[in-house]
Amino acid sequence: xxxxxxxxxxxVLAARRDSDPAKSYVASLYAAGTDRILQKVAEEAAEVMLAxxxxxxxxxxxxxxxxxxxxxxxxxxxxxxxxxxxxxxxEELQRRFGVSGHDEKAARTTSQNG
Length: 114
What we know:
By secondary structure, the chain is an all-alpha fold.
């Protein structure tokens, strides 16, 4: 998995915490707080779903790609705002690689109930 873009974006987004909200979109999200950031993530997720409904086949769909990029971007903002490292998500995906989705979900359900 290519993480150089994620790493670079993580550094930029973290640096924006100290930026002027009037001059930085990301800083304005941080200043608005968790609820506003979560609202943006939800909006972007809905836009992904709408764009995905209109994909006619397996060829590249720039609208869908753009909406997923927006969702990933706002999700990264959310993680950083909440003090989470985006690389932790990548590490979790790596941990799950090669594990049956059914087995992984069962393990999560068991650990949450136990």
